[in-house]
Amino acid sequence: xxxxLPKADQPSSPGDKIAKAPYDEDQAPARIPPDLFxxxxxxxxxHFPAPPTLPDLDPSDPNFLATLHEKYFPxxxxxxxxxxxxxxxxxxxxxADKESPYYPHEEIGVSALRxxxxxxxxxxxxxxxxxxxxxxxxxxxxxxxxxxxIAELARLARSAVPAQRCMAYQTLGRILYxxxxxxxxxxxxxxxxxxxxxxxxxxxxxxxxxxxxAAGEGGHRGSRAYATEALWLFDKGGWKVKHKGR
Length: 246
Fold this sequence. Notes:
mainly alpha; elongated; RPAP1/Rba50; RPAP1 C-terminal domain-containing protein; RPAP1_C
């Protein structure tokens, strides 16, 4: 039986020679593809799917938010509450304006009362006449009215943003001082004073102030300082002494 030749001495097959042949990229194809056309015959326009045409946005349109969502975010789920802050402020004395909780009605709940950064009470007419460059307007329940309610300040006092907490602590401290000094009533029969105090208790304002003032060294120093100042103003106002903390 003859011995097989070593692999190095075995002749290569014809297929191996074809596989090893160099490939010439510049060589013309054996058959021109049917969809290949000269560069001089390029189409004048390129076709892309055209989106549906929607009318231009009009801030005064009652369907402004729906049109905004349909035009720019058609594939996202619709949640009007998240776009409510983008809605335009209602025009003065319009039906939407009259539905505002701080429209000058004959009776306004004490919880809807608004205050400026110095803790001063802002009546509806004064609040709605303040210019927006004073920094008192925000996207709250009544964006056309300047100032903050006790409930809004109580929420900001628990904000994760230190600047918002500092502003809330400082304003709440000044409100508590004016409350104790009797600017809105000195007895338990005064509805405004007791209403403000009820909003303070409902918003757990004092709990937030005590918690911030007792924060350790790892907390925000500015927040701790403003909370301490607010508690000092509350004590100096005398509300706790007069009404025994009620």
